[in-house]
């Protein structure tokens, strides 16, 4: 069960900064929101509470961004990943509620760093292993349920299937929306998410709204090449943060 944390203004400010930074990046490139926000939230919150707050704001962002980007989402990819994602999220939340899973972050960090090295080395070679898509989707759902950090595993699948960067970004919004749809009720049933957290989220909402607004403005100013390089750079940063935090 998640311990209820009474939030001071200082704690609210730290959480607000974490949510702002995470969802600015999330809106800009389509993933990595939790990877940026989680280490900041863990400065003042326990793991379960941090995951609960991130999940609440993923719900808000998913509704808005999926509505905005619906026509660019590759629904075929979402359908292929649905079963694996649902199973993975459920298993991840079960481990979060009943275990001490922090050591698994190191394994995810190593994998992400190896993928970045592979991508740089391979350059234009495409990493396509259809038989591994279910496994990657399951692992992505698992880490999304556990730490809200499964995005990089979905990047590996979607990055090599989406035709354009716009489609990649929109499809990432779609898969993260699917994850959120499963994660919110499961977190509530597991006792990790509660109404007190929802109430405190309203105080943090201005940070979130500003992040979405500035993220969309920044996306309009950047070209596709810069964003692609940014995706790899953030994957690398995500791997390092998971490995050493």
Give the biggest beta sheet. Answer: none
| Estimated share of beta-strand residues | under 5%
Mean of all residue-level pLDDT scores = 82
Number of domains: 1
What is the share of helical residues? over 70%
N-to-C terminal Cα separation, in Å?
23 Å
C-alpha Rg, in Å?
17 Å
Provide key terms for this protein.
245 residues, mainly alpha, 10 helices, globular, disordered N terminus
Describe the overall structure.
By secondary structure, this protein is an all-alpha fold. The protein has one domain (9-244). The chain has ten helices and no strands. It has helices at residues 9-29, 33-41, 47-69, 75-98, 104-122, 133-147, 151-159, 165-189, 195-221, 224-244. Helix 3 (47-69) packs across helix 8 and helix 6 runs antiparallel to helix 7.
């Amino acid at each position: 069960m998640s311990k209820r944390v009474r939030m001071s203004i200082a704690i609210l400010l730290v959480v607000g900064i974490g949510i702002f930074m995470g969802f600015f990046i999330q809106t800009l490139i389509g993933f990595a929101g939790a990877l940026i926000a989680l280490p900041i939230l863990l400065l003042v919150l326990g793991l379960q509470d941090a995951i609960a707050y991130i999940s609440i704001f993923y719900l808000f962002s998913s509704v808005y961004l999926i509505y905005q980007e619906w026509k660019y989402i590759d629904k075929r990819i979402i359908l292929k990943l649905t079963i694996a994602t649902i199973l993975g999220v459920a298993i991840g939340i079960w481990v979060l509620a009943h275990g001490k899973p922090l050591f698994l972050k190191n394994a995810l960090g190593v994998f992400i760093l190896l993928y970045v090295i592979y991508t740089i080395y391979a350059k234009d070679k495409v990493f396509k292993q259809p038989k591994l898509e279910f496994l990657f989707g399951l692992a992505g759902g698992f880490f999304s349920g556990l730490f809200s950090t499964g995005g990089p595993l979905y990047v590996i699948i979607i990055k090599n299937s989406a035709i354009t960067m716009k489609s990649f970004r929109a499809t990432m919004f779609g898969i993260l929306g699917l994850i959120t749809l499963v994660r919110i009720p499961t977190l509530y049933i597991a006792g990790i998410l509660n109404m007190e957290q929802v109430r405190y989220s309203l105080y943090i909402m201005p940070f979130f709204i500003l992040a979405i607004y500035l993220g969309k403005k920044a996306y309009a100013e950047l070209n596709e090449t810069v964003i692609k390089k940014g995706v790899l750079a953030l994957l690398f940063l995500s791997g390092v943060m998971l490995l050493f935090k």
